[in-house]
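Record type: ASSEMBLY
Status: queued
Input:
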Amino acid sequence: MTFFSVKNISIRGVSAAVPSKIEANIDYEYLSEKEKKLLIKTTGVEQKRRAPEGMTTSDLCFEAAQRLLSDLKWNPSEIEALIFVSQSSDYYLPATAIILQDRLNFPKSCMAFDIGLGCSGYIYGLSVLSSIMNTAGLSKALLMAGDVSTATCSREDKSTYPLFGDAGTVTALELNKKAKPITFSLYSDGSGHKAIMIPHGGLRNKASKNSFEKKEVSKGIVRADFNLALNGLDVFNFSIKEVPAALKDFMEKTKQKNEDFNYFVMHQANKLMNETIRKKVKFETEQVPYSISKYGNTSSASIPLTIVSELQNQVKNKEISILMTGFGVGLSWAVASLSLDKITCPEIIEL
Amino acid sequence: MKITEFINALEKEFDEVDSGTLKPDTNFRDLDEWSSMHALIIIALIDTDFNVSISGEDLSNIETVSQLFDIVIERMK
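Status: finished
Output:
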């Protein structure tokens, strides 16, 4: 099992940007009033943000990065690495991180690449970036994580459209000999790769005319093969089984207890699913913040977005220890523990 | 556990279902209020209260409350 700690890296700041356009699920036209109420109660998603045509994940991350750099008083010329974690890149190629390197005026000596992960991606990205920084002795780097998922969901698909929202986040990392270690455990199970997927557009099923043909998959689910398809029950079962097991294992290996953490921040997948996990691992409700009612499931942005949205005052003013977990598309899941010590955390930016 | 206790637990979770609506031979899909959300609610309830996993496939293979109850009892052993 992949379990390791990274030393000498501290998180100095977290920022988030969302589109200003709010879509409320109570206005979703493909469900009856009763169904809408049940959907909102079960998933916890009251509203989410939707990017207008032409606004990309990198646009959201760009604004969040500019704001964070300016608040931290970091000069773009100091940034030595940039990783963009997303499943909604600007182009098929080149990697979006490289475009952002230029757009943010980072030096040519800055390493930049993408990681194609979703719900588990923030923790995976942190593990990769912190490891490289510690090994190579890089002093300042940015991790960007987010998705514009509304662009790939079919509006007529009640199993995806009401759940997902758009957001971009940036996390600033710095080499610091006094930093407490960040501990990770990382998992994958590709046998579940069909549970959350966009079937067409890659090389396995190249984009063609019929990729855009809408079909009624079942009642209330109309989508094309170029749209996101989600098997909610499979993902639900996977999450309530594997995530508590991974968390228990993590706590045993690190010899930590629930009381050792101020907060347990989960990927914001679905309120009922997250609450089932919370109960199984016995965290108190006060320890578990939610942003899902306001922003929906924002993929790899959901953990940092929840920190900015729900814990801003706490992380700015004192040292906070956090246990976090991300789980979903892949299937892929991850757990991490880290501390945030009076970090820079600007208000959520609206674009 | 008796099936009446199981039914009470289900009715408590489905708060738009009136108490006394569910019977052992009630077919889930015949309920007016039935939706995919109820499948999630059933899976979560059975996992939390009885520590038993129910898959989407299990749910598509069964129709009635008593069939679901039988699966739970079988897996609790």
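Annotation: Chain A touches chain B at residues 34-35, 38-39, 42-43, 159, 231-234, 236-237, 240-241, 270, 272-273, 275-276, 279-280 (CB under 8 Å).
Annotation: The radius of gyration of chain A is 19 Å.
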